[in-house]
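From the shared-data thread, chain only:
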Amino acid sequence: MLTKFETKSNRVKGLSFHPKRPWILASLHSGVIQLWDYRMGTLIDRFDEHEGPVRGVHFHKSQPLFVSGGDDYKIKVWNYKLRRCLFTLLGHLDYIRTVQFHHESPWIVSASDDQTIRIWNWQSRACVSVLTGHNHYVMCALFHPKEDLVVSASLDQTVRVWDIGALKKKSVTPSSDESLRIPQLQLQMNADLFGGGDAIVKYVLESHDRGVNWAAFHPSLPLIVSGADDRQIKLWRYNESKAWEVDSLRGHANNVSCVMFHSRQDLIVSNSEDKSIRVWDMTKRLCVHTFRREHDRFWVLTAHPEVNLLAAGHDSGMIVFKLERERPAFACQGTQIFYVRDRYLRVLDTATQRDVALVPVRRGGLVGSNNGPKALSYNPAESCVLVSSDLEGGSFELYNVPKEPIRSDVPECKRGLGSCAVFIARNRFAALDRPTNTIHIRNLQNEITKKVPAPLPGTDAIFYAGTGMLLCRSEDKLVLFDVQQRSVTAEVSSPPVKYVVWNTDMSQVALLSKHAVVVAGKKLQDAATVHETMRVKSAVWDDTGVLVYSTLNHIKYCLPNGDSGVIRTLDAPLYLTKLNGTLLHALDREGKARQMQIDPSEYVFKLALFQRRFEVVVAMVKSGALKGAAIIGYLQQKGFPEVALHFVKDPRIRFQLAVQCGNIEVALQSAQELDERLTWERLGVEALRQGNHQVAEFSYQRVRAFDRLAFLYLASGNQEKLGKVARLAASRGDFNGRLQAAMYQGDILELICVLEETGQLPLAYVAAATHGLKTVASRLAAQIMASNGNATPTKLPAISAKAELLRVPEPLLHEDNWPLLTITKGFFEALASGGASGKAGGGVDGKVAGGVGGGSAAGKSGGSMSAAEAARQAAAALDVDEATLEGAGWGNEELDLDLGSAGGAKEKGGGSGWGATGGKGSGTKGAGGGGGGGAGKGSGEGEGEGDEEASEGWDMEDLDLPADLGSGGGGAGGHGGPFGGGSSGAAHGGEAPFSAPAPGVSAAQRWIDRRHVLAGELVAAGAFGAAMSLLKTQIGAIDFEPLKPIFLDLHAASFAVCPALHGVPSILTHLDQTHLRDASAQPPSAPSLIFSLTALEEMLRAAYRLVTEGKFSDALRMFTRILRTIPFTVVATAKEAADVRELVTICREYHTAIRCELRRKELKEGNEDVAKRGAELAAYFTHAKLQPAHTVLALRQAMNVFFKLRNFNLCAGFCRRLLELNAGPKIAEQARAVLTACERSPGDAVPLNYDPRNPFDLCPITFQPIYKGYKSAVDPYTKARFAPECEGQISPLGDFVRVGAEGTGLAVCAAAAAAAGTGGMH
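Structure, as tokens:
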């Protein structure tokens, strides 16, 4: 039996598989219906409208519906897409045991403890038939999968088969005679009361000695199977006239809860209250397999209608399992694939597609025993095959592969015992003997020639690794073992490896685990791990060195560096055998050969990028074979945003990529297309970071960021434009802008004027007096004195003798742009610049061609300006004639400061031009001539509208740009500046000054980019938001304020600050967990963390000491600290993860117990109710799972409280528990004395809410007991149970988790989380 999925919950009473999706419904004894994805291991939804246990549930075959029946006498029909109950069917008078949809008709059949079976029409929402005849509880009622029959099982010891053919005919051909309507209504009323004639009893099967719990039809044969409280399973056969018992199956030791036929094999599966599931061979009537649990009784079974899966519900959850392995055993050699199917060893030639059965292989034990062929190893030199299986605890068979098929039924083979067997040389193979932990080396006559001790204790598997070499597996490690030298040459840590796949030349190996793929070199070096949420099934190597592997529903690839992606989806799992170019060969679960075409473009592109074969990358970019957001995201992640630019047409994404790779040209082009404030602001910041203050100036002008412009002009030393900013601020009435500009210019008179105009006379006086302007200072002093009126004269502000004059800082450089790092453009930068330059050049020609003087401009409509042209426009933007300020718009807010579209001129004719004088300009839509006043729509010539309007434009004559900023296109005619003549630059392909490349991926980002990153690692990397989201998903955390100190400490401890030279910022260095001092270069792998399991255990010991000393408040704070720290702890192994789980449980118990005791101490002595409540709390304290020494102290305290309360019966119970714990002699003596006194006068004086014989959990909020089977809300972090009314509150166990929230479980071990494939605590 192979367990595929398991849940922990209340008792599961009903189960149903979805026919198409990987879902399963589980109805619980607590009244909740859970919807699980058994592939992903996640809870999809929950439905909790029933009051009381829900015993039956079933999916509809085609509609998004399921039906449920419970102890509230209600049948509810749900729509899982709408996530709500559609309607409720009422009619049963007692508990409803089972419900089921009909496979064709709109019917539901239900069985109830009211001794009836009802058939409902869920479309009309009415009961169409009542089947009466049983005289005890009806435990089960099911439709036949094909015929018009219903089978029912009852505690009246009978199984009944009902014929509903009449009901089927009635529903198909209803009567149309009006005269029959009244009699039919009368019959319907009688049917509702006494059972109708639409369903009649066909057979009554009586043979069980006690009540029958379940009965089911065979899917295709006329057979019925039943299970009862007499511990027997009976097999029945029926025909048209009678039914009879065929045989009885005995073996269960308690009541048989459920039994069913296997849909694909001649098997019967049953479960029982004896805590076992049994599989029976239907033909031999033998039990072939038994699966047991220690503490859980089984209640229900179900089978998937399409897939070979079963599910069973038990006292603490459910399991989804299959009986046999469905993976065919196979091995590949050249173009041949050897595999086992239908008890034959077959060979498939992929070149000729010839498939031949070579030799029969031995049958692997009984059906359903999971002892079929497990692995296959082929020896091409001697043409023989080793077939391994789990038969007899692990065995192998050695077959000689004939050239022609053998038709003998008894194949000749050599057998032996060994859990694994693989060839290691031409005439030698190795077999693992697990009981002795040795490796037996055998020859082809199956004789042992050597015994070698296994290199690892507990070695449980071996794999081929080349001649004389083996890969040996233990729990979490794989070693490369030299059999001749008996030495370990390499090792790698990984989840338990199931399969090993080598490439053709044995230079690379893939280690396949349940939920992970590890790709490594021949010596297990350079290992890269890919974690999967779905189960990994198989893998093959591509000729280029890429691993192609399959999961349950995908075919994926993995590069040597660990990058992975999806090639295509699968409808059903496939086991890959060989890859020839784009043709993929595989075997399905039935052992049939399959072929499919795949598209390798994506992984070939990524591999070329990884290997830095840029010519291949360019060819694929130009071919347009790759598209999609995934490629763009990958290129960004790997530090190739300049490559991603070639895949993107959307201007917003192009802008982001251009900013990321520092390409100002493309960023400016995209910003003009978007023309959004945030885009211009970001472009300005990026341009300023690169030192390109001309593009920054242009960007700030577009958003009218005058404060930023003023500071930019101050830094660049452009006093003239700074003065213009000041005048513009004055015309707009912007006092803050005037004050800022005055300070930047050192214009003290303007500064004093602004202060005086805004009423800041004392500040203006101080400024005037400090700068020696005595006349102005005297005038301001008089104004200050006069402003006070007749009141007490105001004291003038004191002038400091140490005051210094305000000096304007002198800029270091007066260049057009600040010096940029001159480097040679890389491969893709040159490619991108080449593409951008053509567009930029077109933009200059078409939009702003020409200089200040008149000239023609013809270009393509919609072109974009270059960074150099943006600099020209930015320079001209502030060259405004002051005489035009009054009427032209700078003096009021309605003036359009927009620099225009990329073309500068407005679309409509008559707009202001770029030049200083009128002129002509020809061009297409929006193209303004360099000297024209503005061009109209369409082609042709547009006359400037005169000097008045021309004076409103930006003056282009005051900026002299260097040639290296040119776009390469050159202006046509016009001003003879640096744009004339088409100056050459980087756009022409030569090397030119270039901005510094974009920074690489930070260590923190690399920490985050790993798969299965844990919460502690996210916090250490600074991804607080991601960590919060992860904790909310895992443990329902919603209040992170208590965790703030831990967040800050953990993040601060993961980096070191290295001081630099004076005036240079300090260097922030990441502290990596796997740092090697001797390594020359090492990429970041995982952050160094300050929390560890050892530190938590030390804190726990300190908390124990505080409890022993009776310092409960201090102990409570310590346990709270541990609970808050555990989510950020990272451990390496599954054993340590189990220790963390145990630590959470310990803290939960102590935290609840200590708070209970503190609540008791807070009670003030007084009336009887207070004493009663104190005694209850003292009793609850003794039921916490504490250390024995602390339990002794709690029992001793409770003994004293109850003796004083004169509750002697309960007190005697505490005394007996004390004596069982072997307390110290003094405490034991006191307990014996108290016990004797209690036995003399038994009885309890005060009734309490305390039952020591009924197991319970204590609610940490209300401190009331929650007995087993009662409803409760659960803390998803500590699994503490709370009273139902506490749902939604913050759990006091750490103060950051919401009670009742859904959570996948805390993950503290990445390796275990990857191996499990679920979100539970690992």
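The CA atoms of residues 494 and 773 lie 81 Å apart.
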